[in-house]
Amino acid sequence: MLAALVFILLCVQPGHGQTCTEGFAYDRRARQCIDVDECRTLPDACRGDMGCVNQNGGYLCLPRSLYNQPYRPDTPALPNPVYQDPSAGFPDTFLPAVPGGGGGRGGVEPSYPRVRSTAQCILGYTLAEDGTCNDIDECETNSHHCNPTQVCINTSGGYTCSCTEGYWLIGGQCQDIDECRYGYCQQLCANAPGSYSCSCNPGFILNPDSRTCQDVDECEDEPCSHGCFNTYGSFMCNCDEGFELAADGTTCIDLDECSFSEFLCQHRCVNTPGSFSCICPPGYYVFEDGRSCEDFNECDTGNNTCTTAQVCFNFQGGYTCLDPLQCRPPYVEVSDNQCMCSAENPACRDKAFTILYRHMDLSSGRSVPADIFQMQATTRYPGAFYIFQIKSGNDGREFYMRQTSNVSATLVLSRPIKGPKQVVLDLEMVTVNNVINFRGSSIIRLTIFVSEHPF
Ligand SMILES: [Ca+2]
Ligand SMILES: [Ca+2]
Ligand SMILES: [Ca+2]
Ligand SMILES: [Ca+2]
Question: Which of 31, 274, 277, 403 has its CA 20 to 30 A from that of 293?
């Protein structure tokens, strides 16, 4: 009978600056101890007819005829197996004892030391009552040599010590992998013992891969009052014309255009959401430019209450109905706006020869001085000269007459006059003719409608 020989040769790897246990070498790229394939690196790992089988942290020498056969610990043809203890100083993997080749198959008589077991089963197995060999669960029975940081994994005939996920073996100890140092997360990373978690900056959301982040399209939730633009990591709101963005960056608030300038409207500005409008006082309408006030001509449009006997007179911001002219005796009517006192009538002595009725309008607060009315002699007598003066109505001294030639004069507004108001002025032209010793006068009765507004 040829006893199978099993050798586990432990190879001590010289240090590479990093301490690894026997059978392991430090890999700089992986930054961890990885198993050495002794079958490749040792020239004569196994002698004679023995074939080399690499194992994690060691290797096995098995008869070449055997090492492809499945291992069956209860095979009765394999009594008294030889076991070589891989022993201490090799905490990472405790290799199972592997039975050698069967007897009578033409092997070489072993010349290696034997360890004879008193048990019926090979090491790692225990004899059950029914005579079969059952695997010993070293992890369960606490008969393993795993480091406290490691976990024990039972195998058939042996056990393995390994690190759980998220840990790697450094110096024989399982140590947490700091995934954050190795850029596992695209944005934010929190390391944890045996684990890690990724999160994202505000404006990003974690992808299903739990590592990368993608921009959130905030506009889908319609956070803006008006327009929304998605941006990488954020979003921006904008507002329609006439609105501005509030301090919160999302709300659009109306611009109060009226507060920008008091000259926006000629009369009054009314702020509206997103815009503004100008309004005008009664008697005016808003001009095409949207800001000026234009007088409404009630006389032209027929929008007045004057009777057919009356004459409609339009002025800025209103109108008036003028009654038909009635000349007070001794004056008699000579036209629809003129009364005359005949020179032949003794009652007309010292009275003006004619009274001409005229009407005009004037804007309130008009700048001064301003020439507002002209008067002129219509008939010129040889040797006559003319004097122009305001005979009555100028109680506030807002007006004066300026003679512009021998036969003409201009009524000048010299002080601002505030409406609404009606001023009636009697403007007199005195004719003096010393040749024929004549002195006479004629009057223009001028009614001035001063508007309420300066337009
Ligand atoms: Ca970790
Ligand atoms: Ca965004
Ligand atoms: Ca507005
Ligand atoms: Ca009017």
Answer: 274
| Predicted TM-score (pTM) above 0.85 | no
- What pLDDT sits at residue 48? 64
Q: Delimit the domains of the chain by residue range.
A: 13-170, 218-254, 257-295, 326-450
* 43, two tokens: 């020239």
For ligand 4, an ion, list residues with CB under 5 A.
Answer: 295, 314, 319
Task: Return the ligand number nearest the Cα of 190.
Answer: 1
Q: Which ligand is nearest to the CA of 185?
A: 1
- 196: β partners: 191
DSSP 8-state class, residue 180 = G
CATH for 218-254 is 2.10.25.10
| Alpha carbon separation from 15 to 22, 102, 172, 174 (Å, rounded) | 10, 40, 14, 19
E strands within 131-203? 133-135, 151-155, 158-162, 167-170, 173-176, 188-192, 195-199
Amino acid letter at 350? D
Q: Look at domain 326-450 and name its CATH class.
A: mainly beta
Mean pLDDT of each 10-residue bin along the chain, 455 residues long: 36 48 77 80 72 74 52 36 34 39 38 47 85 89 86 88 87 88 95 94 96 96 95 96 95 95 93 95 95 95 94 95 94 95 89 95 93 90 89 95 95 94 96 86 96 93
User: Residue 219 C-alpha to ligand 2 middle, in angstroms?
Assistant: 8
Q: Mind giving me the DSSP string for 246-281?
A: -TTSS-EEE--GGGT-TTSSSSEEEEETTEEEEE--
Q: Note whether 218-254 and 257-295 share their fold.
A: yes
Residue whose pair of structure tokens reads 């109680």 in the numeric block: 395
Q: How far is the CA of 244 from the centre of ligand 3 (A)?
A: 10
